[in-house]
């Protein structure tokens, strides 16, 4: 589409407002709304000015003038506005229209361009599976003298003794695929699917997930890297607004409930060239080609650093513990969900792919997908062998293995701070082709340490009062 096409659409659909979206460095959508009376064809080349110093991870105040450049291909009518509104995703530039190196969407585009430049492949496909909780009530508070959080769901196991209840709660780890009325969030998820479809987003299925307390999943159809990252941002926006319309709250937080499964974002991915899948080999392990195995080796080799971008919250590492289907083991396997990389079982070359199970949706999808691609490509470029590097294959339930058997199996970092330390030491592979810049990597590390790691580490934890108050 072009700016002219957008103006035609505005007239045909009686649009009154245009909502322009950009993403900050940590991964939250920001927006500004412009009346259609101020929209011209030149708007799509001239851009919309904004204050870059007010966005997290962007510029400082003395160089804060920046521009949003709308991408007409992302235009969609937004049903969550009372006044007819068109929503458009934008790229970020400086006032001279030079693309801004810290714009996450630019990083995703550069990763796709770099893939073509390498000659390894000409396209990559991405299929993330985002898990989430739907809560009926959410409260939290952090002050110098007090701190608490409280979430509630009518189906939560803790409500089995509630007076007036109907006994239709879900025990921990027993929430996978129950039918209604046990699956109390089915109708709400259906409304979410219909809203996603109204945005032009293809949905494959929806279902209840393993945890009690309203955990669910809505699966997206695969797409190319930047387009899928756009879709993830729309997905989170749609689900949150539909939940709000029904008096509920939704979170993609990896571990909001202690003692039950958390929220992951399993990322299926594959490489193609000239219309042919590159991961398939009829005779290879799990039908994986040597190229696919090297791609796997790249991700697993850089996993301790990569997780600083794919699992970038302190809460991410509350999920990454053994015993909750969390993929903490840096190994690959055929159909094994306890491994960091699972190779789905398929007899179709076109369905040949890998599933990186460790990431979660607190990540910025543009950066997470781009970084994962760069790690995989580094493995291909260096012809790494995951077997020789000790990454498997391990086709066993790793959680049932003895301590002796587990010796030699590497685990993911135990905290965000540890992941950031690894990223600081190991990030040259991100800089290949100018996809990431040294400035972006260092800004990310500094931001995460200053604004997330240190604030969490400095505060007393409620559990510490239980453990130590009378020591």
Automatic annotation (TrEMBL):
Question: What UniProt keywords are attached to this protein's entry?
Answer: ATP-binding, Cytoplasm, Ligase, Magnesium, Metal-binding, Nucleotide-binding, Phosphoprotein
**Which family does the UniProt entry place this protein in?**
Belongs to the glutamine synthetase family.
Where does it live in the cell?
Cytoplasm
Question: What is the protein named?
Answer: Glutamine synthetase
Reaction catalysed?
Answer: L-glutamate + NH4(+) + ATP = L-glutamine + ADP + phosphate + H(+)
Gene3D superfamilies in UniProt:
Glutamine synthetase, N-terminal domain (3.10.20.70), Glutamine synthetase/guanido kinase, catalytic domain (3.30.590.10)
Positions carrying O-AMP-tyrosine:
399
For this UniProt entry, what's an example GO CC term? cytoplasm
Which terms under GO biological process does the entry name?
Answer: glutamine biosynthetic process; nitrogen utilization
Q: What is the lineage of its organism?
A: Bacteria, Bacillati, Bacillota, Clostridia, Eubacteriales
> Is Lipid biosynthesis included in the keywords of this UniProt record?
no
Q: Tell me, what is one Gene Ontology molecular-function annotation carried by this entry?
A: metal ion binding
**Entry superkingdom:** Bacteria
* Cofactor-binding details, from the entry: Binds 2 Mg(2+) ions per subunit.
